[in-house]
Amino acid sequence: MMTEIQQPTNPDHLDSGAKMHQLITELYPICRSITGDGVRQTLRRLQSYIPLTVHEVPTGTQVFDWTVPKEWNIRDAYVKNPCGEKVIDFQKSSLHVLNYSTPVAAKMPLSELKQHLYTLPKQPTLIPYRTSYYQENWGFCLTHETLQRLEAAEQAETGDYEIKIDSTLADGALTYGEFVLPGESEETVLISCHCCHPALCNDNLSGIALSTMLAQQMSAHPRRYTYRFLFIPGTIGSITWLALHEREARQIRHGLVVACVGDAGAMTYKKSRRGNAEIDRAVQHVLKTGGAPYKLLDFSPYGYDERQYCSPGFNLPVGSLTRTPHGQFPEYHTSADNPEFVQPATLADSLMQYLAVIDVLERNRTYCNLNPMCEPQLGKRGLYSALGGRQETQKNQLAMLWVLNGSDGQQTLLDIAEKADLPFTIIADMAQLLLEHNLLALA
Q: Model-level pTM greater than 0.90?
């Protein structure tokens, strides 16, 4: 579903969109995988933006039912035709190599080579993204048009193709990045993104860029919660972190998995396994009151790392806030998911949605009305004159009455906002005003 993107008017948000897009462009050429120097290089570049701590978990480490795999690195790869011309070249696109390919140096006819070639016949101009993480194999990805040209050339000339994959698959480590922002409480908000895909901007780099910018902006403000930002390889990364940090995992009170936040689709929220956790309600409220189209999805055990955080043994309140979900845009896992596909305006809009959700989490408190016997007289306290411009006065006055009536020591501000069908920001602002006039107290 495509929708008109709300153009950010705040200069800081406009600047953030441009900065996120620049970071995506900077990271795009790096060949990443679930392990290896591509991940390390990516995390080193992020360290120039935020003080990221980099962790290494050795090959062979047992993490629940999984084992940290061998480390994969690649320097070069190509296929040369019988005339010695490079017809597939890793240096032109890291997608050209089956990710995690074992090293190869051989010559063979096209008929044999074709068993190791991957194309998209229905998208003949695009290079697919393919992997072989847990079953040793080698291969090349190319456009279907290129394969057809090779097949046509084979009819005119015969000879072997030269294949070279200069890679290593050996004992090493799984690398991930972590940045923790302490808050007033050890209760934690988790922001998790995957950092393992090469040359894919929406499905991977947009999540990295947004998480980095969010960490920068959160660093500049006081925080009720502690914030933990994870930059991890997909699946094996979250499993590894959970296996090694069970105590820290139990402190997670809210969490979001970040991916696919740079395309022009409507915002989409996949709920946590709990379905009605505070994070689920906060996101739904922000999307509902934001005025733009959005989609809600129930939890399913298929997708990104939310399925690990929400596994039955943990059942953490972690959802996934994206734009168009994975697999539902034609550019997904192809060479078309490039820097032109993601745009600064959509990145900035996604960041605004995340900041709005965090604002709900940070300000959602439970209050007691200190003057519960009928309505207090607001005029003599100067509260009517403090309600803002004429157009806003009626809505703010209604919000104030809702806060006073709902602050019974049981209902949170989010409860009140949902009942009043008013944006949380207005409810929270009115609660702060009443607090300053000694009409409310924290429960």
A: yes
